[in-house]
Amino acid sequence: MIQPPFHLAFPVHDLAAARTFWGVTMGCAEGRSSDAWIDFDFYGHQLVAHLAPDHAGLDAARNPVDGHGVPVPHFGVVLTLDQFEALAERLRAGGTRFEIEPYTRFAGQPGEQRTMFFRDPSGNAVEIKAFASLDQLFAT
After folding, report:
1. Is the residue at 1 inside a domain?
2. What is the pLDDT of residue 102?
3. What would the DSSP string read from start to end of 11-66?
4. What is the reported pTM?
5. Closest Cα partner for 5 from 35, 38, 46?
6. Most buried one in 30, 56, 93, 105, CB count within 10 A?
7. What is the CATH number of the domain that holds 18?
């Protein structure tokens, strides 16, 4: 079954910084834009960075997951293992600081996955995941 793309609008402090991070560092093609927002192609999904300087990068909580404090809210995408490793290298080369370095979560358990957390220039938390098999995405 082909999954429909999702749409996510999120606040940013600075559109120029968002354009550089999401477009150059992350490699997301830019779509429509205005002086208040920018569309990005995030692995076939539509991300929209909206200028909202007073609301960007605010954490509501941190929840413990596999020994790490995971920022809430956060968003991201599930990639293949090869895509995950290539993006991790791209982020390192671009000077991105990881909030949670790339590692294997739930090793040897159902749902084993590669994961990493970082923030965009406005402080929005992003999680990227990868599974050896997508059958493990909802494993219990």
Report:
1. no
2. 98
3. EES-HHHHIIIIIIIS-PEEEEE-SSEEEEEETTEEEEEEE-TTTTT---EEEEET
4. 0.93
5. 46
6. 56
7. 3.30.720
